[in-house]
Specification:
There is one protein chain. The protein is of the alpha+beta class. It contains ten helices and 46 strands. It has an eight-stranded mixed sheet with strand order 5-4-8-2-1-11-14-13. The longest helix is centred in the middle third of the chain and has 33 residues. Pfam families: Peptidase_M1 (PF01433), Peptidase_M1_N (PF17900), Por_Secre_tail (PF18962).
Length: about 775
């Protein structure tokens, strides 16, 4: 059924795309001349005409159909005089009065006026705000999203590219800024002026713009790969200083993107400030940029970097359809990370990537209609997180597949081949494959054309000496989240540590559900980590930390809190939150039902004397992504904690934790792991036996002394918990001592081996207290 649905959806998408783009198969729009009067801004009115120069692509063209949205058409003329037309507030159908062939060229001029529309969502269209008039070239709710049609007649699709000339009349000290180069500015009379702009580079209708206000221009320049690049920062006079300060790193962005993506091929870099608070729009050479983001600080400079990056992804190379929008927006969002990496450092960029990956895995499928590919998204999610954020994460993965040199070489080649053209995902794949020599079919099949995520984890290793080196055979298992087809030919980086924290890395290729590889390293490893540096975004999020002193660490990506009470040497910890179903319980006489969605791994190199606890939260709430709703649809009463040392062992009930449930109506609370061990942890649903309680006791209610002990230990209880049972377990979970207690109990420990144990107090079949007990 899933394959049939995707096939039908793809077929429907092709038909819809054809309907949007079909006019561009019959007529080529060569140039638009937009001549508009903005002197009646108080009444939010425009008036003027648009001359559309075109040539047929097929013989027998006798009509021209132009998109124009809810403006008043006064007349349509051509070189031979007035033309007949029909108009339904959406489509202007013009009778050319003759039949044209592919050898002909012609034009029509549409005279019109009115108040241009905004998109129903409030994002996109035309705005009159105070002293400003400006457009944003897409409408989030519009269908199609292209929104040139709100202010001039056009072929409003992603594939039709044309040159533009603008003649804009303004008054009262206002000036119009458009795409391209300012050719002239002339006074008509009094304070009324006309400005001519020319854009010879061909662009689609959604990248066409006008911004009108009492603007002044800060002129700068930067030496690019193809020569000096003019920079125009356009703002009202009172805003220019802040704008210049916020755009200090714009020259860095030019260098970064020219190196990564190829030469800047436009006639200028332009930004115009507008009073729009919900984003920016990448109009070619004249980006509409929010006034609030140019406040003199660097707080929004990644927005500047994003919009500017569109001059490679979204302006120079444009998506063929809305379903390919990840090429525009995913690559531009990835460019924010690249900007941060090069202006600041890779670690800062990687933190942003990791945090985004966690957010996407946790919430995307809930917020945007379930699991689906980033290519071919439904219309209502064109401008959602799947396109922007997950698209950027997949660009990061693409970099891992190709390596830095081939990645940036390939992107340079793609922008060169498809410059001033539209491109779809298949063409992107094929061009990368052709130019890099790396078959990108597996990558696109797995990450671009398929839903969900892959997850990789080391199942086991076999270590054998090899002279002065060691051979390590690594067994890797792949799991899936939101998908049913295992990924193939996936490169994964493995990191090996010795006891002194020296590390080496090796790259292996995984294929299918189970893979193995053998690598040679210069030492015997004590810790092996997969994808430690997150070169591949997958269904796992993690935190790496070094602990040198007592304290609490809140780890947001791994959803894991660690409290260290004592330590004399440094500890290296790598906490992983796996967003997939853990391995099944093999020996399960109690019929525990393990989580369907997640588990944790605690890996690291620990000093012998570390004393640490941990807190992990169970949560069935929507605003946390329904993390554990499969286990606890109503409350947390039946939730238990399982543990295994590694993937070669079976899951068992963990004994050394307390549970706190905060809500009787929905599962929300935490488990406090009293003795944090290296290994894997998972929630399960089962009967409560030992190790769990509704609310952990205050430690003042139980006294255990002396601790450490070498011969005996005394346990003393508060009045509220008299008549209980004391149990002592070793760290394998074996029950060593079990004795009843009224209020005080003295236990002989002289026969116990010197090591750490866990002491529990049991009342009415439930653990109400646990503590480490150290026997010397």
């Amino acid at each position: 059924m899933k394959i049939l649905f995707l096939t039908f959806f793809s077929f429907f998408l092709v038909l819809f795309t054809y309907a949007q783009n079909s006019r561009s198969d019959t007529v080529n729009i060569l140039k638009y001349e937009i001549n508009l009067d903005f002197t009646d801004m108080d009444n939010q009115q425009i008036k003027g005409n648009c001359k559309v120069n075109f040539t047929p692509k097929i013989n027998g063209v006798s009509q021209l159909k132009l998109d124009l949205l809810e403006l008043i058409v006064d007349s349509v003329v051509s070189i031979s005089g007035p033309l007949s037309y029909t108009y339904n507030d959406t489509l202007l159908n013009i009778d050319l009065g003759l039949s044209l062939t592919t050898n002909d060229s012609s034009y029509v001029t549409v005279y019109y006026h009115g108040s241009p529309q905004q998109d129903a969502t409030g994002w996109g269209g035309f705005y009159f705000q105070g002293n400003y008039a400006f457009n944003l070239g897409v409408g989030f709710d519009a269908n199609p999203h292209n929104y040139g049609r709100v202010w001039f007649p056009c072929f409003d699709n992603f594939v039709e590219r044309s040159a533009y000339e603008f003649n804009m009349i303004t008054s009262a000290g206002k000036k119009a800024h458009c795409n391209g180069v300012l050719i002239s500015e002339n006074v008509i009379s009094g304070d009324t002026i006309i400005r001519k702009w020319v854009m010879n580079e061909e662009i689609p209708s959604y990248l066409v713009c006008v911004a009108v206000a009492d603007y002044t221009t800060v002129h700068q320049s930067h030496n690019g790969l193809l020569g000096s690049i003019p920079i125009e920062l356009v703002a009202r006079p009172s805003d220019t200083t802040n704008m210049k300060n916020s755009f200090i790193h714009l020259p860095n962005a030019i260098d970064i993107y020219e190196t990564g993506y190829g030469p800047y091929r436009w006639n200028k870099v332009g930004f115009s400030l507008v009073p729009f608070g919900s984003g920016a729009m990448e109009h070619a050479t004249n980006i509409a940029y929010p006034l609030s983001a140019a406040n003199g600080t660097f707080g929004s400079e990644t927005l500047m970097a994003h919009e500017f990056a569109h001059h490679w992804w979204g302006d120079l190379v444009t998506c063929e359809t809305a379903g390919d929008m990840w090429i525009n927006e995913g690559m531009a969002t990835y460019s924010e990370y690249l900007f941060t990496e090069k202006v600041y450092d890779y670690e800062t960029a990687l933190e942003e990537i990791k945090n985004s990956n966690k957010s996407i895995i946790q919430y995307l499928n809930l917020n945007e209609g379930g699991y689906m590919p980033i290519s071919g998204v439904p219309h209502e999610y064109t401008y959602g997180d799947r396109v922007y954020k997950k698209g950027a994460l997949m660009a990061h993965n693409m970099r891992a597949y190709l390596g830095d040199s081939l990645f940036f070489y390939g992107l340079n080649e793609v922008t060169n081949t498809f410059k001033f053209k539209s491109m779809n995902s298949e063409q992107f794949r094929d061009e990368l494959t052709l130019k890099t020599g790396v078959d990108m079919t597996p990558f696109f099949n797995d990450w671009i054309f398929s839903p969900g995520y892959a997850h990789y984890e080391i199942d086991s290793t076999i270590i054998a000496p090899n002279g002065a080196n060691y051979d390590v055979e690594i067994f890797i298992e792949q799991k899936l989240r939101g998908n049913s087809v295992f990924h193939t030919q996936t490169p994964i980086e493995i990191t090996f540590y010795d006891n002194n924290w020296n590390r080496v890395k090796r790259r292996v290729i995984t294929n299918g559900q189970f893979s193995s590889a053998t690598v040679t390293i210069p030492f015997q490893p004590v810790l092996t980590l997969l994808n430690e540096d997150n070169k591949l975004n997958q269904a796992r999020t993690d935190d790496r930390l070094v602990i040198k002193s007592a304290g609490t660490k809140t780890l947001n990506r791994s959803l894991f809190n660690i409290t260290t009470t004592s330590i004399t040497d440094s500890a290296l910890l790598h906490i992983e939150h796996h967003w997939v179903k853990p391995d099944a319980i093999q020996n399960n006489p109690n019929n525990y039902r393990i989580s369907e969605s997640r588990y944790w791994s605690v890996k690291g190199i620990l000093p012998a004397d570390i004393d640490a606890t941990a807190k992990i939260y169970f949560d069935g709430r929507y605003n946390s992504g329904y993390l554990d709703v499969d286990l606890v649809p109503v409350n947390g009463d039946s939730l238990i904690l399982l543990y295994r040392e590694n993937a070669t062992q079976d899951w068992t009930l963990y004994l050394y934790y307390t549970k706190t449930t905060l809500s009787a109506t929905i599962a929300y609370g935490w488990m406090t792991i009293d003795s944090l061990l290296l290994g894997d942890y998972a929630f399960a649903n089962g009967d409560l036996t030992i190790g769990t309680t509704e609310i952990a006791l205050n430690k003042k209610e139980v006294k255990v002394y002396p601790n450490p002990s070498d011969s005996f230990v005394t346990v003393q209880l508060a009045k509220s918990i008299k008549n209980s049972t004391v149990q002592v377990y070793d760290l394998t979970g074996k029950l060593i001592i079990e004795q009843p207690i009224f209020d005080t109990l003295k236990i002989n420990t002289s026969d116990l081996d010197p090591q750490t144990y866990i002491l529990l107090v049991i009342k009415e079949g439930k653990s109400i207290y646990n503590q480490k007990l150290v026997i010397q």
